[in-house]
Amino acid sequence: QVQLVESGGGLVQAGGSLRLSCAASGRGFSIFAMDWYRQAPGKQQRELVARISSGGSTNYADSVKGRFTISRDNAKNTVYLQMNSLKPEDTAVYYCHRAASFGNPAYWGQGTQVTVSS
User: Fold this and answer.
1) 12-39 b/e (C-beta count within 10 Å ≥ 16 → b)
2) Which of 20, 23, 43, 61 could potentially form a cystine with 8 if both were Cys, beta carbons 3.0 to 4.6 Å apart?
3) What is the pLDDT of residues 1-35, one digit of tens each?
4) Helix (H) or strand (E) holding 11
5) Closest listed residue to residue 109, CA positions, set 63, 78, 74, 73
6) In terms of Cα–Cα distance, which of 39, 43, 41, 55 is closest to 96?
């Protein structure tokens, strides 16, 4: 059983920074791509914010390019999301996600709230 536990959310002023962490239990962390999604208030769908492959390649939503950085530490089974120059529109619940792959199901964390005040 895999558990994903996010931390690092909070309240920050516009222009500020936060770093989110996602600690994963289970084996084989390093072979899986990991994602950060977010769900903004009043929106039903979650938006893919950033993805990091097992090899370290990264992809970002256009709305966060140049401001957010995803990284991973395989020795710690942890993926990070460094968020700089935060804007009020970044306010959302941020979720860690591991996609279904290698015959394994997808997993979601419980989410961490990020609130950016103007």
Assistant:
1) beeeeebebbbbbeeeebeebbbbbbbe
2) 20
3) 899 999 999 999 999 999 999 999 988 899 999 99
4) strand 10-13
5) 78
6) 39
**Mean pLDDT in residue range 85-103:** 94
Mean pLDDT along residues 80-99:
97
CA angle, corner 27, sides to 8 and 48, nearest 5? 45
CA dihedral of 101, 60, 12, 5, whole degrees rounded to 10: 10
Q: Which residues contact 12 (CB under 8 A, 6 or more apart)?
A: 18, 86, 114, 115, 116, 117
Torsion of the alpha carbons at 78, 84, 87 and 89, rounded to the nearest 10: -30
Q: How far is CA 80 from the centre of its chain?
A: 7
